[in-house]
Amino acid sequence: MFEEDGKAQLILELRQGGVTDRRVIDVMERIPRELFVPEALREQAYENIALPIGLHQTVSQPLTVGLMTQSLDLTDRMKVLEIGTGSGFQSSVLSPLCRRLYTIERYRELSQGAEKRFADLRLSNITTRVGDGSLGWREQAPFERIIVTAAAHDIPPFLVEQLSIGGIMVLPVNDGRDENDQRLLKVTKTEEGIETEELGTTRFVPLVEGDEP
Fold first, then answer.
1. Does position 67 have pLDDT exceeding 80, yes or no?
2. What is the H or E stretch that residue 161 is in?
3. CB-CB neighbours of 2 under 10 Å
4. Cβ atoms 42, 109 nearer than 8 A
5. How far is CA 124 from CA 117, 120, 128, 140, 145, in A?
6. Whole-model pTM?
7. How confident is the model at residue 5, as a pLDDT?
8. In CATH, what class is 62-202?
9. What is the pLDDT of residues 108-142, one digit of tens each?
10. Three-state SS at 202
11. Is the dihedral of CA 15, 18, 24, 27 positive or negative?
12. What Å distances lie between residue 145 and 16, 50, 54, 84, 151, CA to CA?
């Protein structure tokens, strides 16, 4: 009952926070977020907050997940790249909304945990990789959509390169003045270059370049 009440309250908060896409709401209502947080924090799984998942990483605030997913304007024909698998919650929201999801995680331990959750939830259209997300996934490019769940200092050029013309990337960017001063950007790739739209402020862990230490 606690989980049902908590989920109902969370869905209400998502709607009030601006998540209006019915498809996104439906998916987030179905995904059991308690599977994506440490057992000790499961009572907080349906609070609208980010939660630690180990290795100095977090599972994003549900409202942020909903707004970023909605901003991608997905269809079930699209190939999507996600940078920062984490525990797999954002991936599990994306999976039913796209044709194929490729997701990169820097930490093998997190990637392996996410893979098990995807299997348990029978999400069969997700391919994982351990590596440096800022480099993207050149072999599978181009992507119609890219989502980055860690804050870069600028828009990563390799990711722009791997975005198809007309494609959309949603990512947090830290302009360097303040570690917590992050802007959520929607980047659209055109024949001439890129167009950016600011979606608001946010807070993510930093995007770290290089492989797992």
1. yes
2. helix 157-161
3. 10
4. no
5. 11, 10, 11, 17, 19
6. 0.94
7. 81
8. alpha beta
9. 999 999 999 999 999 999 999 999 999 999 999 99
10. strand
11. negative
12. 26, 24, 28, 14, 17
Instruction: Give CA–CA dist 63/10, Å, rounded.
Output: 9
Q: Active-site residue 60, yes or no?
A: yes
3-class SS string, 74-141:
CCCCCEEEEECCCCCHHHHHHHHHCCEEEEEECCHHHHHHHHHHHHHCCCCCEEEEECCHHHCCHHHC
Tokens of 182: 């992050």
Averaged pLDDT for residues 133-152: 96
Q: Measure the CA–CA gap between 96 and 94, rounded to whole angstroms.
A: 6
Helix, strand or coil for residue 37? Answer: coil
Q: What are 192's two structure tokens?
A: 């001439």
Residues 60, 95, 111, 134: which is the catalytic one? Answer: 60
Q: What is the pLDDT of residue 2?
A: 47
Q: Give the side-chain half-sphere CA count within 13 A for 165.
A: 4
